[in-house]
Design brief:
Elements: E1 7-9, E2 16-18, E3 22-23, H1 39-51, E4 56-58, H2 67-76, E5 84-89, E6 91-93, E7 99-101, H3 105-119, E8 124-130, H4 140-151, E9 155-161, H5 165-172, E10 179-181, H6 192-201, E11 204-205, H7 220-229, H8 233-244, H9 257-264, H10 273-280
Parallel strand pairs: 3-4, 4-5, 5-8, 8-9, 9-10, 10-11
Antiparallel strand pairs: 1-2, 6-7
Helix pairs in contact: 1-2, 3-4, 7-8
Length: 286
Amino acid sequence: MSQLGGRFTFPGTTLTVSRVGYGAMQLPGPGVWGPPKDRAAALAVLREVVELGINHIDTSDFYGPYVANQLIREALHPYPSDLVIVTKIGGKRGPDKSWNPAYSKTEVESAVHDNLRNLGVDALDVVNLRLGAGGEASFEEPLEALLACKRRGLIKHIGVSNVTPEQYREIRASTDIVCVQNLYNVANRGDDAFIDALARDGVAYVPFFPLGGFMPLQSETLDKVAAAVGATSRQVALAWLLQRAPNILLIAGTSSLVHLRENSGVADLHLPADAIAALNSIGRPA
């Protein structure tokens, strides 16, 4: 029986999760907007997540907006005692479906309370502060707002998302950080050194778009390795991440039961050394 890639305990916490988790971004409708095309199917996927033994769900209240969290609550509340729900703040959706920054004290506090209400919890397990790419977003105001919420018991632990190593170090000087969520996959390797540094600190690295996101990974090498090991290209890309570093946690998202089961099976897929070497050639560290 699969152990879902083993277990990982967020540093300084009692929160232990399966390394193979689940991302809720694809549950809402097209463009991560509005209700799902098939609500019953979305609820079935979430229930299957728990049935498979996955106890790490990544979400945000700006998925939908509000839709992903409301579906999670409808499907799984009251939650299993070991379920860890990680959400994120720092963005909001415009009426034109745009993705906009939301870093003011008022916006952060509102986002925390929205997540609490829509998830139906008294405190959030982990909240990631998502910043802008390339360091253009100042983190002082939103971080202080998050810390104030943590002091009030509304947040248990804090992570960061879309950050540079420098931002991580600066934020970590003010508070403990349990996870970093950045863009990374077999073809996008810019965070290689960052991942290794976080592994030494015992901090989780949670790659978003592990399969390429809105532009799925396409590689002849990936396909050849998949054929050689008797797996799908998606499974190989995820298995590569699991073997890349012990602190990497997967949050591949899907609204399909078939893909969910396919993704969960990567924990049983061991890639031999020659396959790893071939896959490493796809994306070189920046």
